[in-house]
Amino acid sequence: MLKNIGNRPVFVIMVMLLLGTSCSKYQKLLKSTDNDLKLQKAIEYYEKEDYHRSIGLFTDVIPAFRGTQRAEEINYYYAMAHYKVRDYVMASHYFRTFTQAYPMNEHAEEFLFLAAYCKYLDSPRPSLDQSTTREAISEFQIFINRYPSSERVEEANRLIDELRDKQEKKVFDQGKLYFDLMDYVASVTTFNVLIRDYPDTKYREEALFNIVRANYEYARNSIDQKQVERYNEVIAAHQRLERRFPESPYLGQSSRLRDIARAEIARLIPNVEITENN
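The structure corresponding to this sequence follows.
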């Protein structure tokens, strides 16, 4: 059995004492003016995977070694330590500045990729602001342009595709949200923006169908004087879907909305001949 001191196991007391001693030593290091010692210990902390303490010491010594032969090495560790603690915003910044300061360094290619990769890791879910996603795409493209023969290009392109899909989904979800809110004009506009900006999007077929639906609901809820024009938009939207996706599973529903639109136009303008564009 463990011996207790004041109802605490002996090993707990020992651990607390060791932590206290360790913290005390680290605080003394931070206050030290011996920059060579601080640098040595910063590297030791890094190698022991104690990255937070490593960062603290590197932060202190960077100004002292700026412009020296060791600056390159220090900035390498500093960027990597931020990456290891998953501070992707700062890591991306330090990776990028490293490649600018030391373009011929053996790690320049890797760091330029990692600068973009940190943005990728920091990219939020589609429902949130996609500024970081756009920045990640831009930085991956910079990497590809600078190192077109790199073995990392394939991975960069794959990640760009993933990030673009996130952007596309955000726009697509916005279009659906506008539809649910019964803002049918905004819904149609948003789906058209998606198709315009991302012509190869996997959401294109469903977006085209949703344009039919939104146009139909807009026409149905319009005053009589506006309905003929707006029902014609339903027919045109259906034709667009049919031309682009002749085997679409949405054509059945879309055709029914087109037929209703035709019937409503005939009701509103008796004996009218409906001419459709082929």
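The chain is about 75% helix and 0% strand.
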